Amino acid sequence: MNKIIIIADSTCDLSLDLIKEYDIKIVPLHVSFKGDTTDYLDGVTITREEVYKKCDELGITPTTGARNVNELINDFKQYVDNGYDVIFTGIGSGLSSTYNNAMIARSEVSEEHIEVVDSQNLSTGIGLLVLKMAKFRDQGLNIHEIATKVRELVPHVSAKFCIDRLDYLHKGGRCSGMTKALAELFKIHPIAKVINNKLTVYRMPRGKYIKAVDEQINEFKKDFDNIDKDCVFITHSGHMDGEEKYIYEKLSEYIPLENLHITEAGCVISSHCGPKTIGILYILKK
User: Fold this and answer.
1) In 3D, which of 29, 20, 246 has the Cα closest to residue 123?
2) Contact 99, 116 (CB under 8 A)
3) How many CB atoms lie within 10 A of CB 34?
4) Is the distance from CB of 32 to CB of 62 less than 8 angstroms?
5) Is residue 275 within 8 Å of residue 237, measured between CB atoms?
6) Dmax over Cα atoms in the chain, in whole Å?
7) Which of 181-185, 200-204, 238-242, 270-274 is predicted with the least confidence, judged by mean pLDDT?
8) Which residue has the higher pLDDT, 177 or 31?
9) How far is CA 235 from the centre of its chain?
10) How confident is the model at residue 270 (pLDDT cuts 50, 70, 90)?
């Protein structure tokens, strides 16, 4: 059996330590600003803080772009040509064209030696599946067996986030001015959840931001008996006021510390949700 390379796009938001530990190859998505001819690569030629700075200076949010077909062909071909099998996942097909582009690239390079899995998710919702891929690989499964097992897990990923401010969603055309104004007036901090391959606002708690954070923690507790304790992520977009540590302390009563990870969102995810967004992500057993 060929050696296996696992490739994920930069929206998986895994930490450098986890990427190194599990030998994951990361390929970047694109970030661009109107009036700026530079095509930035997520986490390679631009950082999250540089994105925020540009947003403040320009008064607009960036456009994010998929990994294109030619890039993915090169990503895959360099390994297949050297005797590897490749399994790839990235941001969900309902959120980006990256998956469809990867399927085209697979057909161009090798359907036998490449598997592409639609995560139907974002951020460490993808990261959870990537780590499962790595563990299945280390158990000796081939890419087709890994893909089958991971596809079965896709519907069981729970990914939700508290959003502190709606100006990024508004500037990006994902939130009306009226919704933004009402949220500010009534101190609403929406909780968004990935449902059916889309990011959807499903709760609108009023009050201080910590109330929305506590709602996530309470939902985690309700789900606890049904949670795969193998890995739980706390992922945030920076500029936090200690909420990531607060959640970590609460969840550490339930999850072994070696399985509980704090990670930071990259440029693409942060471009859409803005600073001070935080989520708890895990896989449900059923």
Assistant:
1) 29
2) yes
3) 9
4) yes
5) yes
6) 60
7) 181-185
8) 31
9) 9
10) very high
Rounded to an integer, what distance in angstroms lies between the CA atom of residue 277 and that of residue 168? Answer: 11
Q: Is the dihedral of CA 219, 224, 227, 232 positive or negative?
A: positive
User: Could you give the CA distance from residue 211 to residue 193 in angstroms, rounded to a whole number?
Assistant: 16
The tokens of 233 are what?
């992520």
Which two tokens mark 230?
């193998």
Q: Find the mean pLDDT for residues 256-263.
A: 98
Containing 179, the helix (H) or strand (E) segment is helix 177-185
pTM for this predicted structure = 0.95
Of the candidates 52, 55, 53, 32, the residue with the CA atom closest to the CA atom of residue 42: 32
Q: DSSP state, 119? A: -
Give the distance from CA 108 to its chain's centroid: 27
State pLDDT tens for residues 27-60: 999 999 998 999 999 999 999 999 999 988 998 8
Identify the residue whose tokens are 């795969």: 228
Q: Return the residue matching tokens 């959840």.
A: 193
